[in-house]
Design brief:
Elements: H1 7-17, H2 22-27, H3 38-54, H4 71-74
Amino acid sequence: MGMSTNIIRRLSQHIASGKIAPGAALRAERYPVSGKGRDALRIAEQKMMNKIRNSGRAIANERQEIAKRRWGKYGI
């Protein structure tokens, strides 16, 4: 999970650094989120991550964009 205005470039960087394999980049699912400003985007990303997890699907990058203890503060 992560935010990027140029997902192709970002996946290429991950491949070059060895963080992910080329095949994984090709299979990466993309989910659009929108919001005005960094905090709004972080909230939208966390909500999308929660929605994916709640559907029973796994997320390779389990990093929480917003700490669970702060979800109430952000309406998550």
